[in-house]
Amino acid sequence: MRIAVIGVGAVGGYFGGRLAQAGEEVVFIARGQHLQALRQHGLKVDSIKGAFIVQPSLATDDPRQAGGVDVVLVGVKAWQVPEAAQAIKPLIGPETFVVPLLNGVEAPDQLAATLGAEHVLGGLCKIISSLVGPGHVRHAGMEPYVAFGELDNRPSERAERLQRAFEQAGVVADIPADIQVAMWEKFLFIASFSGIGAVTRAPAGVLRSLPETRQMLEQAMGEVLNVARERGIALPGETVAGALALVDSMPPGGTASMQRDIIAGRPSELEAQNGAVVRLGAESGVATPLHAFIYHSLLPLEQRARGQMDF
């Protein structure tokens, strides 16, 4: 397959790198020093599953140079999706499809609004990784996993082709029976873990072992469960227990990217995670008091990071 990756960071870099390592034709869309490093030295990935360096078939900041591709993997931050959708346009041919591998549940609709729903699948990933420098990604924990599927859950040959490509690259890839359920399961976990981690500044090992913070995790996850069900997403009853088990399986020092961004004073996915829980809950008439506390507590730091406040 000819695959373009837009957002060659912790997520796009790892999964795009594995596909390139397996022999797929991968185009990296990047900018600045990151792009220069990719062109000069390739992509370096340090991983608990083995380090490697790959040379992309093309690294560019101009998607028009890439031409049409079979699939676009979107690894940008959630707030960058509308801009990324515009950048993706030159990559779209009649059969091209786009798979978001980012946090949140709103990206497929945002991409479809610009590119057309026929070109968009739902998608998600699970991995603990970070961009440690230009052209350099570190995978520090968790079995890398991707899931994707048609938004109406119909079987499709294009999803199966991508699944085979990931499996040949050594990545666990799933086509869930209901991609909306799968995306909300991930959302329930990441919004709760990210938000409480950002407020407390504590890693997974602390959050899960301290009874007070474990209770916060469970409450936050329960609020997302209630919002999802009110919106017609059939999350099973064991979803919260499964998300807590995922926290229990993480390395003790594990943190979420939103937490790391807020601590470092960078713009974060606060609006697409805890902010989205509050917003979607309000639309659905579901109270989300803990997520509201998290969102309101972190909002001053978020606005400072974006230059909207000075203190």
The CATH superfamily of the largest domain is NAD(P)-binding Rossmann-like Domain
Please list the strands of the largest sheet in the order they lie side by side.
5-2-1-6-7
Q: Which percent range fits the helix content?
A: 40-55%
Radius of gyration: 19 Å
Explain how this protein is built.
- The mean pLDDT is 96.
- The strands form 2 sheets. A 5-stranded parallel β-sheet has the order 5-2-1-6-7, sandwiched between helices.
- The chain folds into 2 domains: 2-177, NAD(P)-binding Rossmann-like Domain (Rossmann fold); 181-305, N-(1-d-carboxylethyl)-l-norvaline Dehydrogenase, domain 2.
- The longest helix is centred in the middle third of the chain and has 22 residues, at 179-200.
- It is built from 12 helices and 10 strands.
- Helices cover 47% and strands 19% of the residues.
- By secondary structure, the chain is of the alpha/beta class.
Fold topology:
Elements: E1 2-6, H1 10-21, E2 25-29, H2 32-41, E3 43-47, E4 52-54, E5 58-60, E6 71-74, H3 81-88, E7 97-100, H4 107-115, E8 121-133, E9 136-150, H5 157-168, E10 172-174, H6 179-200, H7 204-209, H8 211-230, H9 239-249, H10 257-263, H11 274-284, H12 289-305
Parallel strand pairs: 1-2, 1-6, 2-5, 3-9, 6-7, 9-10
Antiparallel strand pairs: 3-4, 8-9
Task: Write a concise keyword list for the protein shown above.
311 residues; alpha/beta; five-stranded parallel sheet; five-stranded mixed sheet; 19% strand; globular; single chain; Rossmann fold; N-(1-d-carboxylethyl)-l-norvaline Dehydrogenase, domain 2
